[in-house]
């Protein structure tokens, strides 16, 4: 049973670990642009600007979602813990906080695309690489009925 709680500053090292290992293993097409220290600073900054929810399974923090207003800035689950309902539980929680959610997803990220589409997100538009990585991506939107 996945539990959701607000992430706090002392969770940051674990959030950075999940962020980096999830990108390396599940999004291997992404260039590594930042160091661990830079990722730490980035997530700390986001924690100050929005809300970060932690997904906890068997008392271990295994995934997180960053929400800034109606934007899902990040959603990552540890690769060893995917397909166990953690991503969905985090997204369901974010859906209770906003009547609309939007997010960017890389074209190549088939797993996440299928996941978001199964969670009711609709494609709004695509870009040919209008992001730091220079890779094609897609804007998705969910609106509460
Ligand atoms: C995408 C991600 C967040 C999904 O989280 P998850 O915990 O693995 O997903 P869940 O187990 O909660 O999936 C819930 C439901 O979504 C759907 N779903 C999930 N993955 C799917 C897939 N690859 N294809 C189709 N449907 C999928 C299913 O309906 C699933 O329900 P089921 O378990 O009954 O089949 C996770 O795989 C991840 O962290 N990936 C790497 C990072 C990433 O890509 N983040 C998104 C950046 S935009």
TrEMBL record:
Gene3D superfamilies: 3.40.630.30. PROSITE patterns: GNAT. GO terms for cellular component: ribosome. Coiled coil: none annotated. Keywords: Acyltransferase, Ribonucleoprotein, Ribosomal protein, Transferase. Residues 2-142 form the N-acetyltransferase domain. GO terms for molecular function: acyltransferase activity, transferring groups other than amino-acyl groups. Pfam families: Acetyltransf_7 (PF13508). InterPro entries: Acyl_CoA_acyltransferase, GNAT_dom. This is Ribosomal protein S18 acetylase RimI-like enzyme. It comes from Maritalea mobilis. The lineage of its organism: Bacteria, Pseudomonadati, Pseudomonadota, Alphaproteobacteria, Hyphomicrobiales.
């Amino acid at each position: 049973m996945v539990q959701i709680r607000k992430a706090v500053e002392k969770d940051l090292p674990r959030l950075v670990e999940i962020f980096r290992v999830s990108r390396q293993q599940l999004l291997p097409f992404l260039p590594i642009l930042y160091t661990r220290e830079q990722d730490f600073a980035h997530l700390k900054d986001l924690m100050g600007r929005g809300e970060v929810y932690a997904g906890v399974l068997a008392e271990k923090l295994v995934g997180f979602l960053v929400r800034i207003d109606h934007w899902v800035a990040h959603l990552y689950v540890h690769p060893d813990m995917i397909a166990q309902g953690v991503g969905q539980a985090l997204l369901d929680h974010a859906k209770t906080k906003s009547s609309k959610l939007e997010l960017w997803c890389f074209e190549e990220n088939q797993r996440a695309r299928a996941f978001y589409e199964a969670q009711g997100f609709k494609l709004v538009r695509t870009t040919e690489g209008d992001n730091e990585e220079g890779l094609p991506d897609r804007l998705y939107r969910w609106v509460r009925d």
